[in-house]
Amino acid sequence: MLIDFENLPDDSRVWVYQANRKLSDDEVAEITELTNDFLTKWTAHGAELEAGLEIKYNRFIVIGLNQANASASGCSIDASVHFIQSLQEKFDVDLLDKMNVTFYSGEYIAYKPLADFRKMAKEKSVSKNTVVFNNLVNTKAEYLENWEVPATESWHNRFLS
């Protein structure tokens, strides 16, 4: 069952998929339509899942799931990953590579392989105050409060001296 992301409870589970490039407005519109269609039909052991979608900065697909009524099962999580894989193929974009870092570079959002981010940290091109996107958040509350944070408040801190 599709609901507005804003109406999901704060303890809802979230998955953040970052794109390796900025998506066009047309792509965002189509991805929104396809994802809403998927979420409308998403089930776990026959039970409807109450889920919502948010696309941020034409770069992040955020799916939230209210687990109060029904939790995601292994099969339903597999279905969501297969759906994300279909988006990757259709739009020629990488959404599942967790070994990349997205962060603000001035007013722009940069996307770099982890190795490049480490190198930038050593060269002081990024600092403890660089705002990074912590895609490891697990709940809507964490997403709202701890997703865009200075690198010192994220797992990225280990690369900064």
UniProtKB/TrEMBL annotation:
The name this protein carries in UniProt is: ABC transporter ATPase
